[in-house]
Amino acid sequence: xxxxxxxxxxxxxxxxxxxxxxxxxxxxxxxxxxxxxxxxxxxxxxxxxxxxxxxxxxxxxxxxxxxxxxxxxxxxxxxxxxxxxxxxxxxxxxxxxxxxxxxxxxxxxxxxxxxxxxxxxxxxxxxxxxxxxxxxxxxxxxxxxxxxxxxxxxxxxxxxxxxxxxxxxxxxxxxxxxxxxxxxxxxxxxxxxxxxxxxxxxxxxxxxxxxxxxxxxxxxxxxxxxxxxxxxxxxxxxxxxxxxxxxxxxxxxxxxxxxxxxxxxxxxxxxxxxxxxxxxxxxxxxxxxxxxxxxxxxxxxxxxxxxxxxx
Length: 311
Prior knowledge:
Elements: E1 2-6, H1 27-36, H2 40-45, H3 49-53, H4 55-75, E2 82-85, H5 89-97, H6 102-122, E3 126-131, H7 135-144, E4 149-156, E5 159-164, H8 166-178, E6 183-186, H9 199-210, E7 221-222, E8 229-230, H10 236-243, H11 250-259, E9 264-268, H12 273-281, E10 286-290, H13 296-305
Parallel strand pairs: 1-2, 1-9, 2-7, 9-10
Antiparallel strand pairs: 3-5, 3-6, 4-5, 7-8
Helix pairs in contact: 1-4, 1-6, 4-5, 4-6, 5-6, 6-9, 7-8, 9-10
């Protein structure tokens, strides 16, 4: 089986759209610009790292580029048996699976980014990756820290992201190192996502989600909040609202895909974060990052191996 995975905020890079400008799938960028009333091409081609770090820019640009890559892959006949996305990437996965129309996805991501930016401005926070320690050890470090800090993402064995107040993150990171963690790395994000700091954003986004039509899908999408596959459209508004303040269970998501028979993981969009996680969590499978057109041949080859090409 083949899985499409979609990256979240933090994978964005300056100039990440440049390799796709002359590709037919680049036409989606204008569709997204019209739906969002933003110059998405400028974000993908001209924005610097600091501009892209802002939540409303990081989310929209990453979402749109992921769908450009997905469109290119589908044009070659590659299809998935299951899809999943990390945080923001869940919106990409839902659009790719057909639960969301592209224009609806763009509007939701635009609203999500604005709501999260507003919440982050009101309650500044950040995130850091803690490497080399088990989830329970890092949870213990967060509990021992004096300030507000929580486990936000369980990404892979020995790779957990914490989020909260910057001083509390520094303290929790130091405690985690004392308990055996190897390294603590700040992440290029503009807020403490997937924590109670985002509660105001969940309230604002909830109204937009309730006003959006989610369709049932032919392939399951595994949700961040429960690491379970879903094909019903009705439950996604609630899941996506809860996702803003809940831990992203990506390690469990990959484990679920492996248990269901996935042996090929294709990451569609900027960066290689999810590809690295898949290699670590599913060493018997194959993981491919498709961030540029140069990767398309490898995607087709992987799809052919597991009967994931249209007849």
